[in-house]
Amino acid sequence: xxxxxxxxxxxxxxxxxxxxxxxxxxxxxxxxxxxxxxxxxxxxxxxxxxxxxxxxxxxxxxxxxxxxxxxxxxxxxxxxxxxxxxxxxxxxxxxxxxxxxxxxxxxxxxxxxxxxxxxxxxxxxxxxxxxxxxxxxxxxxxxxxxxxxxxxxxxxxxxxxxxxxxxxxxxxxxxxxxxxxxxxxxxxxxxxxxxxxxxxxxxxxxxxxxxxxxxxxxxxxxxxxxxxxxxxxxxxxxxxxxxxxxxxxxxxxxxxxxxxxxxxxxxxxxxxxxxxxxxxxxxxxxxxxxxxxxxxxxxxxxxxxxxxxxxxxxxxxxxxxxxxxxxxxxxxxxxxxxxxxxxxxxxxxxxxxxxxxxxxxxxxxxxxxxxxxxxxxxxxxxxxxxxxxxxxxxxxxxxxxxxxxxxxxxxxxxxxxxxxxxxxxxxxxxxxxxxxxxxxxxxxxxxxxxxxxxxxxxxxxxxxxxxxxxxxxxxxxxxxxxxxxxxxxxxxxxxxxxxxxxxxxxxxxxxxxxxxxxxxxxxxxxxxxxxxxxxxxxxxxxxxxxxxxxxxxxxxxxxxxxxxxxxxxxxxxxxxxxxxxxxxxxxxxxxxxxxxxxxxxxxxxx
Length: 606
Ligand code: ATP
Known about the structure:
Bound molecules: adenosine-5'-triphosphate
Largest sheet: 6 strands, mixed
Number of strands: 10
Strand order of the largest sheet: 6-7-8-3-9-10
């Protein structure tokens, strides 16, 4: 019986795969080989194991002939026992070698994927923020996980199965022709009888599997959307439980139908395949019988049995090799996709002779800075300002005017497109990234906490901080009262992305984290989302002392933060339209006054 599972279901290319067939070039093959090369010794042993086990695997079929002729028909019991033991021994030996081969094979595949994973993760860590904002997170994770796991499969199964199947097939054909060329030719001619129905069955089942896969994706989509914390909240608040249940039930029912159809398609085709695959042996018995009885007295029953047995051994390898082209294209596509990531240039990295000054003061200067995320739209136009060490600047302006973009340029999350940003008088592009980022601390609009304890999140900024330092930072960030109230104090879990905490608590923990980092320059990107006035004032109390005593830049939405700064920059459409202190700006009656009045009410009312 030809094997039904395995490569059968995966033996066809999707339309998308056909359209994106990779170009297999010599450099690509060389590059793949460069990952295999460090393991050439192990690969050589695998190759030898494959050759030996493939040849040994065929021997029992050959011995069957001798068991019949020299043992059974000659009625020689001793010979019979010897041959049976030899056959069992060979089969045992072949399987034993296969175990060793598969262990080594897996070992090599795991080590190669280990190398690839580390290299890919290291490369991704170097990519700029722009890469992460413009690429889908799901795609990045798929490359890291499924694509690299795919490579593991290619090395541990595709490559070796091509090799062992080719060797088995070649050896089987050679032995068949040595036994009897007429019967061997009959055997080779009947091969399409079982390969064609098997491929047809494979195609049908593959199409059904693909449909089931799409259905499964749809189900996962619904589950991900509706069973997530925020999704459930939306469902509940809009009273959509029944609607979502019906939607889920409908896809679930479709899935069941597909599964039944899929398993039945397999059954029907099995009937056809089984019938066709018994035609081959019967033909050999028939032609062999005629030859033996009428034309060739030397042809024995054993010889005919050997040919039938060898034909049976050819089913699997022929089917697998027919799928080889598809497997090959897929494997090359996997490698191409992975290499595409490796080849993406790291656009923000240390200059070859990057400077690392001994000490940082925190002076920042923007000189005619231009910036755009995409060529079509310029975001910052000619921004110039100067922040002296110890001072503070508040940046205000309408939403989308480019405030966050300005601060992102200082630690080089993005690089300027024109003009320059200097830190302590040196162009940030000439400073080492480690120095720059060590001396700048940003509390961003969206506070990100890792799933872990409060302590773990704080230690991220300073791994060797003492208990006293942690408590001190919490006190300064105005979060210590909250921490004390937790059952486990600093060891309380913050939940996935800090979801167990309120917005204000998360912000104060992130302020504590920045205080532990103790950078020279503090940057606060105040969240626009409104917090209640108690949370607001707690945050204000935490950042006020920092504004007064440290070099800081504040993207400010709250009046008290604005008033605390030494200078206010008003940004509109990517330009600085006004600058000065509060009283001057209010008097000028321009953009600042408008902003002020929309946010805090008419000036005359005050
Ligand atoms: P808000 O006060 O609402 O936070 P903002 O003044 O800080 O706004 P920025 O975040 O600097 O504004 O964004 C300025 C403009 O740049 C916006 O129009 C925004 O849509 C665009 N922008 C921001 N980030 C990107 C990005 N990664 N790719 C493309 N455009 C972006």
